[in-house]
Amino acid sequence: MKRVRSLLFPDRPREFRGRRSLKIGLRALHVACVALLLGSHAFVAPGEARTYWLAAATLSGCLLLALDLHESAVFLLQVLGAGLLAKLLALGWIA
After folding, report:
1. Residue 90 scores a pLDDT above 90
2. In this structure, how many other beta carbons lie within 10 angstroms of the beta carbon of residue 40?
3. Disulfide check for 75: which of 3, 44, 63, 68 has CB 3.0–4.6 Å away?
4. How crowded is residue 36: how many other Cβ atoms within 10 Å of its Cβ?
């Protein structure tokens, strides 16, 4: 049990070289994908275009979540993490 706890909640958050740049790039990609998804709905684009941007937004969001969880799972216990979980539950409920 102690091994699992130390794996999920390390004493010092895990880091790797280039993490900040990767996170900034992924966040920019995610914002762009969500904006294009919203635009595809606003301008009534064909369904396959909407599906493409939905998949891209979902993938970029999951990669951002994976980066945060790699650092430490304590992220899920903070307000930002709880908000993210609520958003994911709401999206799952809508689907």
Report:
1. no
2. 18
3. 68
4. 18
